[in-house]
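REQUEST FORM: STRUCTURE PREDICTION
Request ID: SP-0412
Submitted by: Lab K.M.
Chain count: 1
Length (residues): 491
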Amino acid sequence: MNVHTSSASSEYRFIAIYCRVSTDDQVKEGTSLEDQESRLLSYCTAMGWKDTPVLFIDDGYSAKDTDRPQLKKLVEAVKNGEVSKVLVTKLDRISRKLLDLLNLIDLFSEYDVSFISINESFDTNTPPGRLTLSVLGAVAEFERTRIRDRAYENMLHSAKKGKWLTQSPYGYRLEEKTLVIHENEANIVRDIYNMYLHKGLGFYAIARQLNEKGIPSRYNKEWSLRAVKLLLTNPIYKGTLAWNRVTVDEKHGKRVERDKEDWVIVDDAFPSIINKETWEDVQKKMKQVKIAPRAQTSPHLLGGILKCGRCGSGMSISWSGSKTKRYRLYRCSAYKNKGTCTSKPYRANKVEEWFKEGFKQLSTSIDTEMIPQLIETQQNETINNREKKLKNAEERYKRKVEAYTSGLIELSDLEKEKKQLDKVKEEASVKPDKIEQENLEKLQRELESKIKSIIDAIEILPVEETKPLLHTFVKKVIVYNEEEIEIVLHY
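STATUS: Completed
RESULT:
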């Protein structure tokens, strides 16, 4: 049967009649297309609707899904604001699946379209119809929750076994449900970590450099700031599976991090592209105090990191002198903007010379002056990290005990969590002195190498290229008086 097309103008909306029959339905009494059409047209007449309805008829299509040509046309007409009512003889004419039916009804409601099924006396414009719709919605939501819970349990089981559950991340390919390293992309991943950690480039600068070189991200798309950040924070690159870390806040439509107790973490689950130490160093750097992008790109060596020794405020550049002999000054922002500090301005070239001289002295003072301080800093950081890790492990085990006593998990799951807790306790009991002494020579070499690289950069490269590297090492510079400064490192 052909579908009648509407010749109505856009000034009013038409009534849509939808009829469907599958091959099996044709042998059943009362479901023929002619019978459906006749009954629905009679209903329109009885209701006193004078406009000629427009027919949408799917002949020989099952209601197992919504992939039907005339149903698609009907949906398109609804979205175009052309329909006022949709009529069917029975609810199963439009869909046999409750979720599909409710999704269509939601769509009709969004465009202010009434949905009427004459057999069930169902009309979304009437109180009984809305009540029925609410009951159907509650049933559908219950079914959706059951499906989601089953999917969650299946994914949780797979994740604990180290199985990859989604599309492969950049740098990998999925072969027979196993992640394998894609070496060409893996080299780009290593370059990105190196640019961020050792060259001092930020997310935006890395993305720009990759795009300028014509290096595409996955699916031949350009790199973005967000893509670089996600790559640098993804633990998969150190071989760790971290599942169930984030969820979507439906109210705000944003990704939010779950409680750590709900994470599924499996170390050494996949081949790593980045070693664990490098990955952890990148995460530490991200947690450091951020320097404003404008300060990072300013043509002044200490912009963004120079602080006033009197009040602690940042010092910014201003200019002084005559039109022919202008010179730069570093002024305390509290003095400059608020008048609340009495610090005097300093000639910028002099402050930068003091800094360069002091920085060069670091290379000769590491062995005698800095080692005790570095050891103490490393010890304190190690102790704090272990305490946090132990606290999280104890809280996680407590939750597992509660889950076991409630019959939600098996004894084997609880025993596995207990072994993990014992392992964390054992790590926490090791004296940090011994650990830090073993890493001391490596730390010294790293410091010496960084200082030499920065000194070379200061002497050779433009300020704009030197500053990102400098900021990876120097946290702040405090000027107290003439030739009296303090250089504070990130270590």
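NOTES: The first strand starts at residue 14 and ends at 21.
Reviewed by: T.R.
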